[in-house]
Each structure stands twice: as C-alpha cells, then as structure tokens.
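Intended use. Records like the one below are meant for learning the mapping from a protein sequence to its folded structure. Do not use them to infer anything beyond what is encoded.
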Amino acid sequence: MVPFVARQWLLAASVTAALAAAPAFAAKDVVVAVGSNFTTLDPYDANDTLSQAVAKSFYQGLFGLDREMKLKNVLAEGYTVSDDGLVYTVKLRTGVKFQDGTDFNAEAVKVNLDRASNPENGLKRYNLYKNIAQTEVIDPATVKITLKEPFSAFINI
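Structure written out for the chain above:
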C-alpha cells in the first residue's frame, strides 16, 4: 500500500502532467478531489482548515494578505481608524456584484458583520467578531465599524 503522503504526491504529479499535456482551450472545468469532507460552506461557522479553504475559493473579504503577509485591499478600497482605535471607517469598492447580480455595498457588509458579531447565532468564528459594538452604513460605499475596545489586529480579521 502506498503511504498517504506518497498518494497525494502521485495524485498531484498526475494532475500536473495531465494539465500540462492538455491544450489550454480544452480546460473549462476543474474537478478537485479531497480525502476528507468539509463541514460547512459558511465562512463564519467554519473552524476546520478544509472548510475555510473551500470557502475562500468563492468568498472574498474586505481585506486579505499578500505573499509577504502584508494587508491588501480586496473588496475594500481602504480604511481609516479613529485616534482612540475604536472606529474603523471602510471605503468599499464600487461596481462589484454578487453572483445573483445584487450589488455589493455597505448594507451587505453590515448584514454580514451583524450576523458574525451576534452571540445568539452561535457561529464558530464569533470570537473573531465579538469585539464589534456596532456597524453603521454611512453611504452605499462606506461602512463604519465601532469596536468595544481597541484591537489593532481587527482589520486583519
């Protein structure tokens, strides 16, 4: 029997070889097999690495990290922080649509952050958002997030 790590390497090598041999115009769909089940597609309720990785393949955040682990804008254009470290004002990208054609806007951010920061929802990632006191829509492209106490790493989550 081939050890698990060797099987993974062989599978990766086989897939790579097959993709390299196939003409680029033939590749329309990609099918990926994993040796485990993910537990959820809800990024706020995922505590396992596989579920988080799957969710990241079709969800985007306001910010992300680049290869050097530096903050980069994703769905946000930028942000400012109040002098006391409690209020984050986030400017959002405009012209972004959800898969159903609905506009991405400050109201969508508010709905998501209100859900994630509500302990009654029992979400597994609640601890990352429990410091949010309030989320307000300033205009369609601006959201204001007030924290209960300063937390310098807030924007990274």
